[in-house]
Amino acid sequence: MNGQNLDRYRLHLMLCAGTACVSNKAFKIKEALDEELKKQGLDKEVIVVMTGCNGFCAVGPVMTVMPDGIFYHSLTKDIIPHLVEEHFLKGRPVKRLLFTPPAERVPIPKMMDIGFFSRQTLISLRNRGLIDPEVIDEYIARDGYKALAKALTEMSTEDIIEEVKKSGLRGRGGAGFPTGLKWELCWNQPGDTKYIICNGDEGDPGAYMDRSIVEADPHSVIEGMLIGARAIGARKGYVYIRAEYPLAMKRLEIALAQARDYGLLGERIFDTDFSFDISIKQGAGAFVCGEETSLIGSIEGRPPEPRQRPPFPVESGLWGKPTVINNVETWATIPVIIDRGSDWFSSIGTPLSKGTKVFSLVGKINNTGLVEVPMGITLKEIIYDIGGGIPKGKKFKAIQTGGPSGGCIPASLINLPVDYEKLTEAGSIMGSGGLIVMDEDTCVVDVAKYFIEFTNDESCGKCASCRDGSTELLEILRRICRGEGKEKDIQILEELSDAIKDASMCGLGQTLPNPVLSTLRYFEDEYIEHIKYKRCSALVCKGIISSACQHICPLSQDVPSYIGLIARGKLEDAIKVVRKENPLPLVCGRVCNTPCEKKCVAGEWDDPISIRLLKRFLADYEMKHDLDTGEKPKSQKKEKVAIVGSGPGGLTCAYYLALEGYKVTIFESQELPGGMLALGIPDFRLPKDVLKYEIDRIKKLGVEIKTNTTVGKDISLAKLKEDYNAVFIAIGAHRGLKMKIPGEEAGGVIDAIEFLRDVNLGRQVKIGDKVIVVGGGNSAIDAARVARRLGRNTKILYRRTRAEMPAIESEVEGAMAEGVEIQFLAAPVKVISGNGQLKAIECIRMELGEIDQSGRRRPVPVEGSEFRLDVDTLILAISQEPDVSLFSGNGLNISKWNTIEVDPETLSTNIKGIFAGGDVVTGPNTVTEAMAHGKTAAQMIDTYIRGEKLERRYEVTRPAVHVEAVELTEQETKSLKRPEVQSRPVEQRLKDFSEVELGFSEADAVLEAKRCLRCDLEAKE
Amino acid sequence: MPKLTIKDLDAISERVKKTTLLREGAGRAKITVHMGTCGIAAGARVIMSTLMDEFEKQNIKDVILTSSGCAGLCSKEPMATVELKGDAPVKYVDLTPEKIRRILAEHVNGGKIVSDYALAVGSERVS
């Protein structure tokens, strides 16, 4: 159809030219159609176009008549004259050839609409799922042994080798040596006895390409070997297949017997002078047998150990004779290359890597399976378009290609095209085709440890570098994963890896350090995290984390212990455990964003444990009974510490310093202490009296809080430095950011933080009837819910979708229940005002575009989708930054984000004796992160005042106390489920600012605590 | 079995189509259970034996029951492909004996695709 003007044709007949339809004589149909159209004088009006496969191969040949979209199937040559006359001449579609839709139209996608299938190109897997592998006739019916016939009767051995060379096919076993060249080298060897071997010793964890090919289509391998044998002049071949593949073995045996029966193996095949037969050699499952010289040794009955190359097997292979050894997938590809020609094959792929590659796609991926894709496809297409992305919306972290010999490729290289060269450049290998996808919950050090465990186990032991080197690598990695890594370990790992690569004889040893080297290359920070900071952010290494909830908590709150104590009914002991790490349990029990619950192991298959509500239950219990949990200053010290700001960071720092015996004074510029807790969070989430009780407990330790005192105005920082032994600045981030869009200075555009502060302080707020809040964080939700309580019609605009919303999920639900409308995927672009007063906003719709390197889809504006919303008050809750204007003249280093610069480990500023932490350092962050800073600052200030070296000590996470697990009855195991928390009904909520969530009853709390899996006990073993 | 000649390949091909391809009149429907190791591990044998039981119980003679290898999407095994004469094949996933009985009753015998369990219609593109 090149150069033809298609417009002049009235009808286009789209005739499928996919392999299946072609083998069903599609070309004969085309000839018949062309002839008949000409006969009827329609050849100027109707054109036949050959198209690619549309997936309806089973009813082929198929044809779609465009533009009407009429679909014919099961076409035969004889029917064409009738069809042309009836439909194209007389305009009457031939009903009996029309595709009969299912009895009822159902919304089932076509195979080609499903990314998993539509992005694949099947060559090696051409017959998968379509034929009965135990029936040779079914293989023959799909053009089986046609290529052999061609090779034997139409081609010389040189032709065959040339064709394979021209195709660009490279060994699919991993190393990628050009197949045609290998054959030629063998063919050039003198001697009459030569061998063909099929390497089916597939040993990579997570890889099963070869198994699947042999199971689904054994004859494709046999035919490939026959053609190879013809090319090099071999009379005998071996399939080396592991004994762990019984089904593959059985099907291969059946296939060999059937082929022999048909004379396709044996003497004088197809009555030519070519004779060849194949034996199966069972492997015992040693990984090293995948290495060709070891495999040959195993066939010969020697121990499977590699030998020095050269000589290569093509010169001296099995029993010293020239031998071609290729893997299963390579052999299965050969018949198609011979049948369809090298030009066709080499048109697929990249300049140096031709054709397709089969991968087994496993790990943290939605569609696990076997995929065959053209070389050059990107990792992103494989992971997202074919694999359907990462389960549960988690972040993609890395992908291991090439099994234990391969490497770990990070998310930042997701656009990498997959071919031999690119993967090698990235520090990995193609390997035989295992793709293991890892998400945010995968620890790369643990992955490296896993692979080295494997190769250490599988090393044949011949080379000391491989045998002992891998043992040493493993020892170091195990130590790191236990939290006992040493600073020099990284260097040793690198040097040792290089030595193993250099000194090992075969591929096993030469590649075994790859998982270590590639993870070190891309994730060195994670090694440092394990070694220096005793952290495993993927929450995998048990020896470091103890339990995920405790390790991820910025406060290292000993969650399993206090939950275990609740389950035993020991509530007072439980609150003491909480208090040890957390001076604000009433607050955290209400407003914590619960990273612990998101990583709770129980949440993997059920609801996560309600950790926050259990803590709240304990804190409420403590408040109700005004329990004395016994925290008292250890001693009375004479040194004094000033803390600027009474938010969660300042209060926590004050608490721990007071316990050490220091005299602590907090300076608070507002009339109420508590910072954002008091001013930013509305009463219905955190009642004032609850916060007051919490702060009063801290005051009881001797902490003084001076409200209405602004440092930098009422008292200078210099004065504090003079009067106190140390200063901690924790003034938070209270200045709202602007949207930076035209017109936003209009009256009626207000800031969420100011709005919430005024409401919290009982001041009059002026807002109109129609309120729109812009943003997706907790401040946006809080501001909207306050506006609803003030009786306003309230809407939230958020530029992404609900899945990306940073606000606490239950708060979003609460807001929606209270009648707050949330418009997702929309953002304001212009504020429209009259007389300086807000009237409306112009918005634009967003859509989620490409996946960025964080693995999330970024919002992009949809051109021409602008729309207008009338509004009286626009509340901006985009983000906040610290207001450091009162500190900037003091010589403190301020970053370009208006945060105070500190040493991240010690929190000390550039001025000796002045420390800073919380949002003023990090920018807007969570309550517990600010508290964690307060805790660290207290330790560092204590160290500083005692005149010791400022240095953090990092330790692995461990429970503070040992709490025995509660035995559950069988009934309990079955019936326990996360209890619903009591909340005030919506109608009541909107009337005032009383607390919405009412917490657990004691009975519910104990039942919920029993549901905890107590991961901490696992770490003890 | 006498040795095959090249001409025999075409003859076998024709014969197979008559016996396995529905449009050639071999039966009114064909069920392919995907029985690679992945499918078998996920329970494909039980699906196959359920179908064999049902065929016997219901005295079904005009439906081809066959097996094949892995269909690729291992995470959704056991899988089966159901093809009625004149219709595109339908792939069913995550099968259980109950599901395959319902598919036999509603789709194979009733002509109505069981959309609850169907993944897709049509076949894969073979390049």
Describe this structure in words.
The complex is a heterodimer of chains A (1021) and B (127). With 1021 residues, chain A is α/β, with parallel strands linked by helices. Helix content of chain A is 38%, strand content 15%. In chain A, the strands form eight sheets. In chain A, strands 10-9-13-11-12 form a five-stranded mixed sheet. Chain A has a five-stranded parallel sheet with strand order 16-15-14-17-29, sandwiched between helices. A five-stranded parallel sheet of chain A has the order 19-27-20-21-22. In chain A, a hairpin with a 5-residue loop joins β9 and β10. Chain B is an alpha+beta fold and 127 residues long. In chain B, strands 2-1-3-4-5 form a five-stranded mixed sheet, with helices on one face. In chain B, a hairpin with a 5-residue loop joins β3 and β4. In chain B, α3 crosses α4. The radius of gyration of chain B is 15 Å and the shape is globular. The mean pLDDT of chain B is 88. At the A-B interface, α1, α4, α5, α6 and α9 of A face α1, α2, β2 and β5 of B.
